[in-house]
Please model this.
Amino acid sequence: MIIGVIAAMDEELEILLPKLNLDRKEIKAQMEFNFGTLFGKQVVLVRCGIGKVNAAVCTQILIDDFNVNTVINVGVAGGIGKDVFPGDVVIGSNLVQHDVDTTAFGDRIGQIPRLDTYEFVCNEELVLLAKKACEELNENNHYAGRIVTGDQFIADSKKIQWLEEEFKAMACEMEGGSIAHVCYLNSIPFVVIRSISDNANNGAHMDYEKFKPIAVKNSSTIIENMLKLI
Ligand code: ADE
Model:
């Protein structure tokens, strides 16, 4: 098993990278792929950059060029709903891209036109492992639920209310849905694990800067625990 661990930003990998027993590095599409063993498991750690296109390109490279057969996406996200707070963790049960809109043709919002699925379902075993890995994070709550993805940093209470009502989502971010989409097309098991850095409402960008270090620490601990459980 070769596990691809994808994060959008350098900050999200800064705890894990020094712990990697590095075999080699390779740069492709301006992304640095780090090969080695992490807590005894063969992994490729990569920072894909922000947004759906970067994330999709990265995921396909991992699958085609580096034989990755399991994908874990970690990082931060905006929390949705009154129960999800900065520091909490949302494990994706499924992913939907909230910015896909072909409703003019009668599609439901979020539906990729002509694709045989609406939501991209995370691998059940990986979700279970992620839940177990979270149980040791005793000071934070963790939830499993839908995560929505779009090429937008959400900092608007009306928009977040719409995401809650329309998608019944628990978190919003900018990569998970496209990683999930690529994994779906390639039949590769995946899971998306996001630590909440803000509530995606007015002022989200300030909370984001404040809570990001805690959120990054949480996701790194979860990856460590998961790899030890696999
Ligand atoms: N990642 C972290 N917070 C976010 C937000 N509010 N919107 C989109 N992506 C995020």
Observations:
- Residues 25 and 34 are 5 Å apart (CA to CA).
- The two ends are 10 Å apart (CA to CA).
